[in-house]
Specification:
Two copies of one chain form a homodimer.
Chain A (H helix, E strand, L loop, with lengths): L10 H8 L8 H10 L1 E5 L4 E3 L7 E15 L5 E7 L4 E2 L1 H6 L6 E14 H10 L1 H27 L2 H16 L13 H8 L3 H13 L3 E4 L2 E4 L2 H8 L4
Chain A binds a DNA duplex (30 and 30 nucleotides) through helix 8.
Chain lengths: ~240, ~240
DNA sequence: CGGTACGTTGAGTCATATCAACCATAGTGG
DNA sequence: CCACTATGGTTGATATGACTCAACGTACCG
């Protein structure tokens, strides 16, 4: 069944709401995107693109959540990041003109805009402020990737699990009962921090025993964020 | 004692030799760098900048090798990458206008040029081709960081050690006797792949027993690169 | 009602970290 | 010139975090 309740978002309105990178475009450039883009809707589990494929454009998330991941040697997923409203994905491949180095799959039903590659390239050439903002974005992600490398290489699974809970709190927030707003399977949690599903389950029940969290099925309720901070050693 | 045998490199000549990003600058822009930059020399062990410090410019490597690393929770180094002639470092912090997220230390004596921040920013604004090339560079590094995350999260220490030897062969090459040109301590090797020094030592002697490498003090002679490829599972 | 995906728990194993001792080398200063 | 110190390399013994395998429970869905 088609969804009829959502109209195609207008870029300047959307970027004002979501804070996307397109807020740095001129009015004409914004119109140009509105004219050229395609609006698409996806459901949980849908794949937007796969590692290794050549990409003809990139996506700007209007609503929903997408996981960006690499597939390792034995087929195991490594989640690299999550994209949420205002984020863009696949821009890396477009700008470096390489095939996709990651896959993207929907975690929560999404509305996204697909924007052809050439339009991004042309804005980089024509709008230096936009180019600089994109550079900032890429450089910022690079810094985060470096931190993540250090964490995975040096911290224990226990520390990493506590840390990722804090990151998820920070990125997606808690509802009025302190439940994490983003809902992930245990396997997905494992695939972020690079461990086995069973390890996540065991550590989560330890956290529960230590009154740091409560668990209701897939939902995680945060009871003691400070306690998690202590475990995670976030402040080195 | 000062070294007098090296004259300050001229940028257009240097970038032609080393293939640095500055080959995309106009003649005037190149002159401007030549005028504004500072030439500096460093010895093994010298620190160019430290994590957390605010940076007033970036470095372009003319000769030598530098390791870029983060310091983890317990003071352990995590090597993020190596910079060699033609590479630039610290550009990330300059462009994103954040404090340095890594430290940089000399592995092999270096001649480098220090270039003030504002000049990089102004080129990004004035030269769209240069901005695009910088974006490509950052995006490419981001892709490599993502692969590295997946490797560290999913591969065994053994696989990672084999893989990093292949990477070092690829990046720094072998001399006429198949010795790796870059010379690292066992601890540094450990700090790339995220393991303990003793583990590197043990695995290297296993590789030696399996006729994959020969060891002469710090020098590593590659005897069977194909064998290393098999171990590393580089082709997933 | 059976199927599929997800979650949980237990038991056993193994790779890797940790701790400790020792050796080799090179640089330093008296 | 030698003792001294620091740094790096090596090896062995031991501990343990985390993975794997396996069984079973649970919930939702067509």
């Amino acid at each position: 069944m088609k969804q009829h309740d959502v109209s195609v978002p207008v870029c300047d309105k959307c970027s004002a709401e979501t804070g996307s990178i397109f807020r740095h475009l001129t009015a004409e450039e914004g119109d140009m995107i509105n004219f050229k883009k395609e609006f698409r809707q996806f459901r949980r589990g849908d794949v937007l693109y796969r590692e290794g494929s050549r990409i003809s454009g990139f996506y700007c998330i209007h609503s929903g959540i997408i996981k960006v991941f690499k597939t390792g040697f034995d087929g195991k997923e490594q989640i690299i990041r999550f994209a949420k409203p205002g984020d863009i994905i696949a821009y890396r491949s477009v700008l470096s003109n390489e095939v996709a180095c990651t896959s993207a799959k929907v975690i929560e039903d999404c509305n996204v805009c697909f924007i052809p590659s050439d339009i991004l390239i042309s804005f980089v050439r024509s709008n230096p402020v936009f180019a600089h903002e994109l550079l900032k974005l890429a450089c910022h992600e690079l810094g985060e990737a470096n931190s993540f490398i250090t964490d995975i290489a040096q911290k224990t699974v226990r520390e990493r699990l506590a840390e990722i809970l804090l990151v998820l709190i920070n990125d997606f927030g808690l509802d009025d009962q302190n439940y994490l707003k983003i809902s992930l399977t245990r396997e997905e949690l494992a695939n972020i921090i690079g461990t086995a599903t069973e390890s996540v389950i065991r550590l989560l029940s330890e956290f529960k025993a230590d009154k740091l969290v409560e668990l209701t099925g897939r939902r995680i309720r945060i009871m003691d964020a400070r306690g998690l901070e202590k475990i995670s050693n976030v402040f080195d």
